[in-house]
Design a protein that fits this description.
Shape: globular
Strand content: 15-25%
Bound molecules: D-xylitol-5-phosphate, zinc ion
Radius of gyration: 16 Å
Number of helices: 9
Order of helices and strands: EHEHEHEHEHEHEHEHH
Keywords: Carbohydrate metabolism, Cobalt, Isomerase, Manganese, Metal-binding, Zinc
Oligomer: single chain
CATH architecture: Alpha-Beta Barrel
Number of strands: 8
Strand order of the largest sheet: 1-8-7-6-5-4-3-2
Protein name: Ribulose-phosphate 3-epimerase
Largest sheet: 8 strands, parallel
Structural class: alpha/beta
Catalytic activity: D-ribulose 5-phosphate = D-xylulose 5-phosphate
Cofactor: Fe(2+); a divalent metal cation; Zn(2+); Co(2+)
Distance between the termini: 7 Å
Function: Catalyzes the reversible epimerization of D-ribulose 5-phosphate to D-xylulose 5-phosphate.
Length: 229
């Protein structure tokens, strides 16, 4: 199932509630499939966004599932609180957790899905042997830290290999791509095998966010990789 998750990183923060409503669609249909919240600590990435209080405010306002992308150090310590708060899926970076299996099990125990994210330069092999513990693999298609960057084309083989790995091992794993997703790049990422697409600028930096989401969903669905779902 193709899913579009707008990233609120570059939305109009002063009007956060309106910005969440803008992508929700009438009666919860036709809009975003989830909200992607980028948590940054100015250590793991050279930028600071927000932490748990803002994520709690987002959760209190929106009916959409929230996926928390944690670009923070020491995820083993900080990630569980995002599961307790009610995020549907919590995605720490592989580079920032020392015990990913224990963390995934803790997130599950707290009622959330567990994701694991890789920076562009981190090979799939870093997590291949523990993927069975996770519900989602996030492949960064820009260097994490900022919205509005161009998609790194050389990530395409990694997406393809990730899809092959998921297919050959029979894992029930969503494959999320994040960074530089536009109505053009989404076609190639979908062809390569991604099925959950984060889009910040492409949704929030246009007048009609719902039309942008519909266009992205259509482009991804049309170019959907045949992976037997
Ligand atoms: C970057 C974040 C992304 C970003 C996406 O570190 O993880 O979620 O906000 O923004 P766009 O779609 O503009 O690249
Ligand atoms: Zn993100």
């Amino acid at each position: 199932m193709t899913a579009i998750h707008p990233s609120i990183l570059n939305c109009d923060i002063a009007h956060l509630a309106d910005e969440l409503d803008r992508v929700a669609g009438a009666d919860g249909t036709g809009g975003a499939d989830g909200i992607h919240v980028d948590v940054m600590d100015n250590h793991f990435v050279p930028n600071l966004s927000w932490g748990l209080p803002v994520v709690e405010a987002v959760l209190a306002h929106t009916c959409l599932p929230v996926d928390a992308h944690l670009m923070i150090r020491d995820a083993d310590r900080w990630a569980p609180a995002y599961a307790e708060a009610g995020c549907q899926i919590v995605t720490p970076h592989a580079e920032a957790t020392t015990a990913p299996v224990r963390l995934a099990r803790e997130l599950h125990r707290l009622g959330a899905g567990a994701g694991i994210a890789l920076r562009p330069a981190t090979p799939l092999e870093a997590v291949a042997d523990v993927l069975g513990e996770f519900d989602l693999l996030l492949l960064m298609t820009v260097e994490p830290g900022f919205g509005g960057q161009p998609f790194i084309e050389s990530m395409m083989p990694k997406i393809r290999r990730a899809r092959e790995l998921v297919g050959s091992s029979g894992l029930d794993l969503r494959l999320q791509v994040d960074g530089g997703i536009t109505s053009q790049t989404i076609e190639r990422a979908a062809e390569a095998g991604a099925d959950v697409f984060v889009a910040g600028s492409a949704v929030y930096r246009v007048d009609d966010a719902l039309a942008a989401i519909a266009e992205l969903r259509e482009a991804a669905a049309t170019h959907r990789h045949d992976h037997g779902r």
